[in-house]
Write a structure and sequence with these properties.
By secondary structure, the chain is mostly beta strands. The protein has four helices and 18 strands.
């Protein structure tokens, strides 16, 4: 059975922990995401997008079109099982919670270029539109298939294992997750660490996220580069 809810007055969906930020200049998609989050753009108020909810499907093959969601809505999938979903409409953001053995196909634009999934196992994301912020929290067995590397910005994950990112163009595959960076890790070690995957010097790299004074998110590599550049400037 399909359940949808476009009532903007309801509480927003539970979100995973904030993605690592402060890792470079703000892109257009980041500014768009901030506008959506704050309801302001350039000092002017803008309408907050609504959320369209699709939940409790099992064994369903479904295409989401413009007839199914309000314009500019974010899409929230919850508790889908053994289902195949094609999103053939532009949306603001995508949330996936509690889904198992599902395939998702995204062929139209995601305005904020942001997709977040949590507590989901064995899901496949087939994407032909840019995803500059991908976040996975408490997931296992996630496949990300993208047309080319230019559509990928970063992946932030925690308590997640068996993740693969594949770019069709160039036939490039990168694997990450607790099983890769902390083989055999259990308990608080795997639960609290957060990692970010980005392209560094031409190759994808997974790095642990550290918190600098003030809560600023960075990596050990970037912190060392920052200190080195400061020392060079002083000299």
């Amino acid at each position: 059975m399909m359940k949808t809810n476009n009532n903007d007055s309801q509480s927003p969906p539970r979100l995973p922990p904030p993605a690592a930020g402060g890792l470079g200049g703000r892109s257009a998609s980041q500014r768009a995401a901030q506008a959506v989050a704050t309801g302001t753009l350039g000092g002017f108020k803008i309408a907050r997008p609504k959320h369209s909810y699709f939940s409790d499907w099992s064994g369903v093959a479904r295409t989401i079109t413009a007839d199914d969601i309000p314009a500019m809505a974010s899409i929230y999938f919850k508790n889908l099982n053994k289902s195949e979903v094609t999103v053939a409409v532009t949306c603001t953001k995508v949330y996936i919670e509690g889904c198992t053995d599902c395939k998702f196909f995204f062929s139209r634009g995601i305005i904020t270029s942001t997709l977040e999934a949590w507590r989901s196992d064995r899901i496949a994301l087939h994407v032909t539109t840019p995803i500059y912020t991908l976040q996975l929290d408490i997931c296992q067995g996630v496949e990300v298939h993208m047309a080319n590397a230019s559509q990928f910005g970063s992946l932030v994950w925690t308590e997640t294992s068996e993740v693969s990112i594949h770019f069709v163009e160039g036939n490039e595959t990168f694997t990450t997750g607790v099983n890769v960076v902390q083989p055999g890790a259990t308990g608080s070690m795997a639960e609290t660490d957060q990692y970010i995957v980005r392209r560094v010097d031409g190759a994808l790299r997974c790095e642990a996220v550290i918190r600098l004074p003030g809560g600023f998110a960075s990596t050990e590599r970037e912190d060392k580069e920052f200190v080195r550049n400061q020392n060079t400037d002083v000299q």
